[in-house]
Each structure stands twice: as structure tokens, then as C-alpha cells.
Design goal:
single chain; 698 residues; mainly beta; Porin; GMP Synthetase, Chain A, domain 3; 3 domains; 13-stranded antiparallel beta sheet; twelve-stranded antiparallel barrel; 32 strands; 13% helix
């Protein structure tokens, strides 16, 4: 098709669609790239804020898997993994059969009555340039059924039907993966367009005019025949969480897509299923029963053990253990260990309710100290009269929070009643585990874990992993750096089963707002040694500062106790700054020395939700050259935590963790040590308690 004919067809399609009557806005859908769009092209739409999606697509011999997340109402990002079958048919011996890429999109304009939604996007901005492209896309809704998109693409999206180079020529891509900012919106630009027709709540029809010539797959590799720029498809939305699609592409190919769409802001089950809390037990009025407020009970020798036993019995139903109890005639301080409830505010509320039933009427002040790894994280002070007055009041959570104080936990009172049955304590579990290194590559196995709480702050823990099923492919490292990560396939192959870790950790509070950790032993499956950390974090501060120093030796690949295979040891360490920007956005900057001896910095941004969801992205730049660093030129990736209670609706603090690094190389690699302090104690500081404070009454 000649350029003139293509432009005519494009204009005809757009003219026909714009003539549709205007009604209401439709929500955005996902394309074959797992990003908001049409079929193979992007659109100007954005997903609902915080939407997380996993997409997989089959396009002839091409397979794509994509994780996407709407970081805010306007900004979204995607991590994509793509493979090609029969990659080396035309060029034998070329083994590059996969590619990883990261996309960013920003919606400049939201759709209005007249103005369309307008989005600017960068595709494959840090990869090897196989899909590097930029675009501007505008989308307008006409009624509740029709949506029209038109846009302009550069790079790969400007490879067919070009109309010129409005911003100059496009320089060659840097294959090391460093962002090629000098390429952006340069070179030939080509238009694309499309339409979506929503038949009903379940079915949607799509058609588009593509500006992607598929040069790599068609002209260079002979994998796909691109006979036409037009694509057509039909999609089926089974429920809010699943969407299927079937497509006819480029006049010669057939494609299938499957999308899982999740909303971290709401629970899949609608809420936590569990027993309702007991009501607050109101005291009689002092004038009506003055004897109830008599403080003589304090001098009774058996009062403390009885109160502690009764409180522990009530809280055990919620998975809360009483570390110790101290009291006076008008104040009680209880230190608790929350083993099951996922929200710190709810654990605080359940404890306060239990205290209202157990403590004599003269006790007015409840001091509740959550304990994490044997150390007090904060002190939440609640007046009993506020609990009694506000339980059935409208907006009671907000009113109670205004009267509650959250301060430093401080040391435990000198006279405290402990529980001899809490220490030492042995716990173990055997659970199935999924370990992913790529969206479509990993293994499934069993993990035997055990923890021995020796004394407050002292924890001995370990785990053994046995692989059951795997689709990982063995690969030999060609890295010029010490193989601190790139020999991972050797650890998978020879370490089965493997001792993943065996550590002794000591947690302490050196001073107010200071927390410390020392871990020694087999810290992770590839490295053993000693790790020390110190964190400064006031309970009401958005800022935290930390420092970590490690000395490690690289372990043998057989998963045992030896070190002779590598004879590699190193001192690493970082200084860190953490900042809570509000609304669940957390920033972190780490500067220091990494496992391969390189020196640099890691910047990360996470979005944390009150129900336990966590989605983040990170990037690391070190003093290693892009050539020596390997594929990608610098380290970057995304991390994700999905809490089990979000899907199951049951009380549990466990979750499913994923960490994807597109290159997974030796540069920028950091020690994987458990129970780093910031994440351990933040839940019970104001920035952790406040977002989900409403659950204090549940």
C-alpha cells in the first residue's frame, strides 16, 4: 500500500468514527503489549489509579508477558519479557531469543467534554533498542460504546507510513541499555489510529491502523509476514479481573491475549473474614459505683498474674501474644506481639478492647507497645474513657485518632510481668513456593522453614528449599565482574535441595528512635557472613536514616556449608535515606559498595497500600562501565508484594513476593538479608498506622 493510500485509509477511518454521537466515557483496555491501548498500538487512556495487571500474549511465534502498574492517576509503567520461537532460522547461531523492556506512560490531559485524553509514552526506554519507540496518543469517547484513538509514533512505532522527521534524525541506539534520551521523538514519525466498539458489558470489538512495520520479525528474521497495516480483534471481559482477546494481525497472523486485572485498593473477597470484635466494656459511673474505682487491687500479690493470664487468653483468639504487662492504679502498659492480623491499627484496637474487659475500673490509660523481633516499635496511648465514649459515634476512627498519641516505645518498665512460655519458642512450617526469575520462567518447590525465638531480640532461623518443577534454562556467565549473581543457574542446578539460610539475629534499641540489627551465618543462598544495621526513625517522622555494613564470603553452589569453590569475600555497606511522601508513596536512596565491589547508588520508589499490597521500581548506577556491567548497562527492575489476605480474606501476615531485574547481573547486586529494620518497624509508626486507622474498631 502506497503512503498516499495509507493516509487516505487512515483519514477515512477517523472521519467515519468521529461522526458517532457523543455519550459517556469508557474505561481503558489493554493491548498485546500489556499496556493501555488498542490491539498492537497504544491509546491516550489510562487505567484506574493503582490498577495492577499481568498480561500474556501469543502472536504467531512471539510470546509476550507483561506486568503493568498505574502508579498514579496519570503515570504508569510496564515490565515486559518477550521471546521468539525459531529466532535463528534465517541467521543460524544467533542465540538472542528473548528481550526485556520497560515502558513509561504519562497522561498529559484527561478526557473532557471536548478535549480527548492525551498520553505521551516511552516504550523500551532502557532495553537493547529492539522495541525502542515513543508516541503521542489521543483518545476520545463517543457515547458509552465507541472510542476513537489517533496518534503519532517514532522509532519502532514510526517504521511504517512515515510522514517525515519533524524533530530531526534519529541517532543509533546504545545497545548497553542506558536510556537513549537523545533518540526520543527523533527520526521518522508515522501516524496510527483505531476504534473500539463496546457491544455490551462483556464483548468489545477493535480495529486499528498500525504504524509498526515489524522490521525485526518480518524483514530481518522471517518470523512474521506483515501483509497489511490493519488489525482486527474481539475481546471478552469475563469479570472485572479477567479479559481475553483474539485478533487477526497484519493480514497474516493470529494472536491471543489474556489479562489479569487487579485493584490493590479493594480486596478480591470484599473484606477480611473473621470474628467480629467484642464490644468495649464500659465502666459504671464513678458516682454510681465508687468502690469499682478503688485502687487497693494494686497491692494484691496475685493481681498481676491473674490480669496477665486473662488478657493473654482473650488476645490469643486474635493471634496476639502478650510479651509483658506493667501497671499502676491508673495506667497499664502491655507489650504485644502480633502474629496474624495484617493491620497494625486493628491489632491495637483488639488489644484496647481486651484491656477494657480485663483491667479494673481505676485504670484510665492504656499504653500499647507493639513488639517486632523483640524490640518495641512504638507506644500507642489510648484513654479508656475515649474508647467508651466513641465506640458508637459517627466517624469514630477519626475522632479517636485525634485523641490518641503515638510516641517512642522506650524501654520496658523495670517491673513487668513476662511469660515464661514465650521464650524460648520453636516454630516451623513446610509450604509450597513459587520462585520466578522472569514473568514466564522459574520453579516450584517446597520450603522447610524454622524459627527459634531464644530470648527477646534473639532469633535463630533457617530454611531448606527443594525444587519440584522448573522451566529455567541453564546459562553460563560471561560477566567480567565477580560472579556474585550471574552464576545463579549453577546454584539452581547443583543446590537441590539447598540450605537457603541459617542465621542468628540480634535486634536491639540502643536509644530512643534508634534500632539495630546484627545477623550472622548463612545469610542467603549465595553468601554468608555477618551483617550489621543501625536505623534512626522517630515514630512521627517522614524521614529515616540508616547504615549497614556487611562482611560476606561466597558460598559453594551445592547448597551446603562450604566456601572453597569461589574463594571470594568482600566488605560491603550502604548509607540509606527513607522518606514517606504521603498517600502510600515511599522513596529510598542507598549509597555505597555492592557485592561485586562496585560503588554507586540505588534509587527506589514504592507505593504501599493499607491492605498490604506493595509495588515499586528501582534503578542502580555504579562506577562500572556500561560494557562491563553487561546487558542493560545499569541495574533496574520492579518489585511486588501481594498479601494473601487480599485474595483469601483471612487473617494472615504472609504474602507473595516478586522481584524482577531485567538483566539480573553482577553489577549493583546487594546482599539479600532478612528483616531489614525500616520495613520491620514502620508498620507501627504514624506513617504506617494512619493509612489504615479505620480498622482500629474492627
Amino acid at each position: 500500500m502506497q503512503p498516499t493510500s495509507r493516509l487516505f485509509a487512515l483519514l477515512a477511518l477517523g472521519t467515519a468514527l468521529v461522526s458517532a454521537p457523543a455519550l459517556a466515557e469508557m474505561s481503558g483496555t489493554l493491548n498485546l503489549n500489556g499496556a493501555t491501548g488498542l490491539i498492537d498500538m497504544p491509546s491516550g487512556d489510562a487505567q484506574k489509579d493503582a490498577t495492577f495487571s499481568f498480561s500474556t500474549a501469543l502472536i504467531g511465534p512471539v510470546s509476550r508477558a507483561t506486568l503493568s502498574f498505574q502508579f498514579s492517576e496519570r503515570l504508569s509503567g510496564s515490565f515486559r519479557f518477550q521471546t521468539w520461537r525459531d529466532w535463528d532460522t534465517l541467521i543460524p547461531g544467533d542465540s538472542e531469543e528473548s528481550d526485556r523492556s520497560i515502558d513509561l506512560r504519562y497522561q498529559v490531559l484527561k478526557e473532557g467534554k471536548i478535549a480527548p485524553a492525551l498520553t505521551i509514552g516511552l516504550q523500551d526506554l532502557t532495553g537493547q533498542g529492539l522495541f525502542a519507540s515513543e508516541y503521542v496518543a489521543a483518545t476520545k469517547t463517543f457515547g458509552d460504546k465507541v472510542k476513537v484513538t489517533a496518534g503519532l509514533g517514532w522509532g519502532r512505532l514510526g517504521s511504517d507510513g512515515g510522514i517525515g522527521s519533524p524533530f530531526g534524525s534519529r541517532p543509533p541506539v546504545d545497545p548497553t541499555g542506558v536510556p537513549n534520551a537523545d533518540q526520543w521523538f527523533r527520526g521518522e514519525a508515522a501516524p496510527f489510529a483505531g476504534v473500539e466498539y463496546k457491544v455490551n458489558d462483556n464483548w468489545t470489538l477493535k480495529a486499528e491502523y498500525s504504524s509498526d512495520a515489524y522490521v525485526l520479525e518480518d524483514a530481518e528474521r522471517g518470523l512474521i509476514e506483515r501483509d497489511s497495516p490493519f488489525n482486527f480483534g474481539v475481546e471478552y471481559q469475563r469479570n472485572p479481573y479477567m479479559r481475553f482477546g483474539a485478533y487477526s494481525l497484519y493480514g497474516s497472523e493470529f494472536a491471543l491475549a489474556f489479562h489479569i486485572i487487579l485493584d490493590p485498593k479493594s480486596r478480591a473477597t470484599g473484606g477480611i473474614v473473621g470474628k467480629a470484635p467484642v464490644p468495649v466494656k464500659a465502666r459504671p459511673a464513678r458516682a454510681a459505683d465508687p468502690e469499682a474505682y478503688d485502687s487497693g487491687w494494686v497491692s494484691q500479690p496475685d493481681a498481676g498474674p491473674i490480669l496477665r493470664q486473662n488478657l493473654a487468653k482473650r488476645l490469643a483468639k486474635d493471634g496476639i501474644a502478650v510479651e509483658n504487662l506493667a501497671y499502676t492504679a491508673d495506667t497499664v502498659q502491655v507489650r504485644i506481639r502480633n502474629g496474624r492480623i495484617d493491620a497494625g491499627s486493628q491489632a491495637i484496637g483488639r488489644t484496647a478492647r481486651a484491656l477494657s474487659h480485663v483491667m479494673p475500673a481505676s485504670v484510665e490509660v492504656f499504653e500499647i507497645v507493639p513488639v517486632v523481633n523483640g524490640i518495641g516499635a512504638s507506644k500507642v496511648t489510648i484513654r479508656r474513657s475515649d474508647l467508651e465514649a466513641l465506640e458508637y459515634t459517627a466517624d469514630n476512627a477519626t475522632l479517636l485518632r485525634e485523641r490518641v498519641t503515638v510516641t517512642d516505645a522506650g524501654p520496658a518498665p523495670a517491673w513487668s510481668l513476662g511469660d515464661e512460655d514465650l521464650y524460648p519458642k520453636f516454630r516451623w512450617s513446610l509450604r509450597p513456593v513459587v520462585r520466578l526469575s522472569e514473568p514466564m520462567e522459574g520453579d516450584i518447590g517446597l520450603r522447610l522453614s524454622a524459627n527459634y525465638d531464644m530470648a527477646p531480640g534473639w532469633v535463630l532461623s533457617g530454611s531448606i528449599y527443594k525444587e519440584l518443577v522448573s522451566n529455567r534454562e541453564a546459562s553460563a556467565s560471561t560477566s567480567t565482574l565477580p560472579h556474585v549473581r550471574t552464576d545463579g543457574s549453577r546454584y539452581n542446578e547443583f543446590g537441590d535441595p539447598a540450605l537457603e539460610k541459617l542465621t542468628l539475629a540480634w535486634f536491639a534499641r540502643p536509644a530512643d528512635s534508634l534500632y539495630s540489627r546484627v545477623s550472622v551465618g548463612y545469610l542467603e543462598r549465595m553468601h554468608a557472613g555477618v551483617s550489621g544495621e543501625l536505623l534512626w526513625k522517630p515514630v512521627d517522622s517522614q524521614l529515616a536514616l540508616g547504615a549497614e555494613v556487611n562482611y560476606t564470603k561466597q558460598r559453594d553452589t551445592d547448597g551446603g556449608l562450604g566456601f572453597g569453590e569461589y574463594d571470594y569475600d568482600i566488605v560491603t555497606g550502604h548509607v540509606s535515606a527513607y522518606y514517606d511522601f504521603g498517600n502510600g508513596y515511599l522513596g529510598q536512596l542507598d549509597v555505597g559498595r555492592y557485592l561485586a565491589g562496585d560503588v554507586g547508588a540505588t534509587m527506589s520508589v514504592d507505593r504501599v497500600f493499607a491492605n498490604g499490597w506493595r509495588v515499586g521500581a528501582f534503578a542502580t548506577v555504579t562506577d562500572v562501565s556500561a560494557e562491563d556491567f553487561g546487558e542493560g548497562g545499569f541495574d533496574k527492575g520492579i518489585r511486588l508484594t501481594i498479601p494473601f489476605n487480599w485474595a483469601l480474606g483471612t487473617d494472615t501476615r504472609r504474602g507473595f513476593d516478586l522481584n524482577f531485574r531485567p538483566n539480573g547481573g553482577d553489577g549493583g547486586a546487594r546482599l539479600n538479608v532478612d528483616d531489614r529494620l525500616y520495613q520491620s518497624i514502620r508498620e507501627y509508626h504514624t506513617d504506617g498506622l494512619d493509612p489504615d486507622w479505620g480498622r482500629v474498631w474492627r
